[in-house]
Design a protein that fits this description.
Blueprint: H1 15-30, H2 38-60, H3 67-93, H4 101-108, H5 110-113, H6 118-131, H7 163-171, H8 174-193, H9 195-198, H10 203-228, H11 233-255, H12 279-286, E1 288-290, H13 295-300, H14 307-312, H15 321-334, E2 340-342, H16 345-359
Parallel strand pairs: 1-2
Length: 362
């Protein structure tokens, strides 16, 4: 990753976003709505945390006991953990969950509760990914470990020929990497890149928070289960690992079909660091929706199946995306710009699989 972000967008092409922004503002004004999630988001936050913590406390106090029941309890926690990340923490970190900044801050740190680190997430996701979407060397979401290749501009290895098969296993390892090595490596990297200084953050303070929150997580998520869960130790270990695998797999299956699919582009800047389009048009070329009519999926994944709307308006809560989607699509069509959308979730996953196959051979 580059130590200093030198990418520049073509700000002469601002007409599309100017018109779109006016239409979106008019939607909120005409319907007397705010951009925040408010009550629906609070309800979702309670439910998602309940999905995660209710099975935990039932197992902790012996209400759920026995190997099979405890294993199923861990799987339920995995679904809840992914729900917290997708449907709650994500909006909160973008400041769109509530009009009250303190409430956004509280729920943004729910990531720390499930083993992650909020500061790292904000720098990787909000700053790098949302600004430089699909730009090799700047968007860390397309820069995984070397055994995976998500960009046509990344180095090609022989093993990548098989990534369309083995990638799914590594997707399940996502949150296991968070709770072990990734957060520590990321924090050191962001210090070298100057991102911590740019955001006015102290490396020492963030490192101390990172260590303390990791210790707290391992205390309640590992130590207490081995002490009090009514199951064999090996089943508790298997359950814990499967919980993280399921969560990581769900997260990857939602985020990957949003950018690494057949229709999306991977623009590269010219030698001077200039990109051809402005930021908003760049988002249209590099982002794709999926399953827009699947309301249950949309509710669970925090509206991230409307990824185009999210990337254009990250400060607007996902509870509004379904209504904003027709406005965005119509405006894109008027300006002869792409609006990528896979009709079904399965179709999006298939498109991602085919893209993995292509990237392993190109």
């Amino acid at each position: 990753m580059s130590s200093v972000n030198t990418i520049k967008f073509n700000n002469k092409q601002r007409e599309f976003f100017k018109v779109l922004h006016q239409r979106v503002d008019q939607y909120f004004k005409s319907n007397s709505k705010t951009r925040f999630g408010e009550v629906p988001m609070i309800v979702k936050a309670v439910l998602m945390h309940a999905f995660y913590f209710v099975p935990y406390f039932l197992m902790l106090f012996g209400v759920i006991e026995g190997n099979l029941a405890v294993f199923l309890g861990f799987l339920g926690m995995g679904i809840g953990m992914a729900g917290i990340g997708l449907g709650v923490m994500h909006d909160a970190n973008h400041g769109s969950m509530s009009r009250f900044p303190w409430l956004n801050k509280i729920f943004a740190h729910s990531l720390n509760i499930v083993g992650g680190h909020t500061t790292n997430w904000q720098l990787q996701h909000n700053h790098l990914h949302h600004t430089f979407t699909n730009v090799e060397g700047h968007d860390e979401d397309i820069a995984p470990v070397g055994i995976l290749r998500f960009s046509p501009h990344a180095p090609l290895k022989k093993i990548h020929r098989f990534q369309f098969l083995y990638a799914w296993f590594f997707y399940g390892m996502m949150t296991m990497m968070w709770i072990t090595t990734k957060d520590f490596n990321q924090l050191h990297r962001y210090k070298k890149m100057g991102l911590l200084k740019m955001k006015g953050l102290s490396f020492g303070r963030e490192y101390a928070i990172l260590i303390l929150t990791k210790l707290a997580y391992y205390a309640y998520a590992v130590f207490l289960p081995f002490m009090f869960f009514q199951a064999d130790w090996w089943m508790i270990l298997i359950g814990f690992l499967c919980m993280h695998f399921l969560c990581g797999f769900i997260l990857a299956c939602i985020f990957q079909p949003a950018h690494v699919v057949e229709d999306t582009k991977f623009p590269m800047p010219d030698p001077s660091g200039n990109l051809e389009t402005d930021w908003s048009v760049h988002q249209l070329f590099t982002t794709a929706n999926f399953a827009p009519k699947n309301w249950l999926l949309s509710w669970y994944v925090g509206g991230l199946n409307y990824q185009v709307e999210h990337h254009l308006f990250p400060a607007i809560s996902h509870v509004h995306y379904r209504k904003l989607a027709p406005i965005v699509r119509q405006t894109a069509e008027e300006f002869n710009l792409p609006y990528h959308s896979n009709r079904t979730f399965v179709g999006a996953l298939w498109s991602h699989t085919k893209m993995l196959w292509r990237l392993g051979r190109a």
